[in-house]
Amino acid sequence: MGMNEYVLDIVKEAFCMSHRKKKFWLSLIALGTLVASTVFALSSLGATLTYAKKAISSATDYTVPAGSDPWGTASDSNGNLWIAIPGCDPSPYCSTNTPPGRIAEFNPTSKAWIANYQLPSGYGQALFLTFKGSNLWFASPMANIIGEFNTTTHKYQKWTVPTASSGPWDVAADSLGNIWFTEHYGNKIGRFSTSSHTFKEVATPATNSQPYGITVDKSNNVWFTENNDAVALIAEYTAAGKLNEYKIRNTSTAGTGLTPHLITLDPNGNVWWSEGFVARIGELKVAQAVPGTNKGVTEYSYTIKCSSCGTHTSGISVSSNGTIWFDDSLQNTYGSFSDSGSGTASVYNAPTQNGHPHDGMHVDSQNRVWFDEEFANKLALVIP
């Protein structure tokens, strides 16, 4: 019997004996004592309860079928998981000698790889993926293209981004038939129309903003991160075509390691992002947001398990029940946190030592949690 059930039984017993006044009051006194004792016990056992909560999550990982450095992930309408395998770790670009990257498909039911597709020559290496209908879209910073993979015919198409060497990075689809992407080296975001095959680019005010993660809300407002810690902003390009920027902190962030990285939305429409080298995740409550300020912004820290490993909060995604999932590539951990903003984040070790869980964090429609282990060449699955 749980503690809540036990307390409820005492209450019921007390009221059932209400005709016996003395016992009734004694029962209420006993109830009060029990509640006070419970509160004291919970407060004193906080670390133990956090550890017990951590124990409910475990991850299983699967070695990618070919290639190396698995990166971004996306789920199709059948629930299968797709992962980009660039075969390199851009710093800032991959070598020109790097072969075209791969994209692999994994079946969560059979726990088996279905297929492994190599990109054609001239397509470079895909990093991030998104679905629009049954077709898979990706950006390739090395080839400076937006690419499409038809999952039925297995045919590829590509379109060159207008700005040379723009570094098209993360991708997201809106509900109007557009693919949005960040231009990490071009300090812009871009829109590609899947019907007219035309581009539109929008520059940020800062010429060194280095946009990284991108997502689109239900109203087709585009949200993205400005990754340079000298800038460190959350930006919104509205469906009406207006660019708004929101501070994370009111103090200078240059040199702090605050590098807003990937970005996502919770079921209430609030914006969450990973914060890179400061071991935090951030939230913007959209209803409280005021452009040019950090109103509505809260940063949340989590437990650092390895004091000598460094930290980089990389991937972030949200389940349908509002659980925020994130990973830390340098700590080799992943964690969960409530979108209510209350409580403590639970942190777990990734299944493979030095696996480097990075930008592939993704929660699918069944609330299964996926992330890449880039340096172990694995895909990890958590079923909460």
Molecular structure report:
The protein has 384 residues and is mainly β. The chain folds into two domains: 3-44; 53-382, YVTN repeat-like/Quinoprotein amine dehydrogenase (Methylamine Dehydrogenase, Chain H, 7 Propeller), CATH 2.130.10.10. Helices cover 12% and strands 37% of the residues. The chain is built from three helices and 28 strands. The protein has helices spanning 3-16, 21-44, 46-54, and strands at residues 59-63, 73-75, 81-85, 102-107, 112-118, 128-132, 135-140, 145-150, 156-160, 168-173, 178-183, 188-193, 199-203, 211-216, 222-226, 233-237, 243-247, 263-265, 271-274, 280-284, 297-301, 313-318, 323-328, 333-338, 346-349, 362-363, 369-373, 378-382. The protein has a four-stranded antiparallel β-sheet with strand order 1-28-27-26, with no helix packed on it. A hairpin with a 5-residue loop joins β16 and β17. 44% of the residues are buried.
Class by helix and strand content?
A: mainly beta
What's the number of extended β-strand segments? Answer: 28
User: Regarding CATH, which class of the largest domain?
Assistant: Mainly Beta
Give the full name of the CATH homologous superfamily of the largest domain.
YVTN repeat-like/Quinoprotein amine dehydrogenase
CATH topology of the largest domain: Methylamine Dehydrogenase, Chain H
* Uncertain regions spanning at least 5 consecutive residues: 1-56
Strand order of the largest sheet: 1-28-27-26
Reported for the largest beta sheet, the result is:
4 strands, antiparallel
CATH architecture of the largest domain: 7 Propeller
Rough outline: globular
Average predicted local confidence, pLDDT: 89
Number of domains: 2
Helix percent band: 10-25%
Radius of gyration: 24 Å
Oligomer: single chain
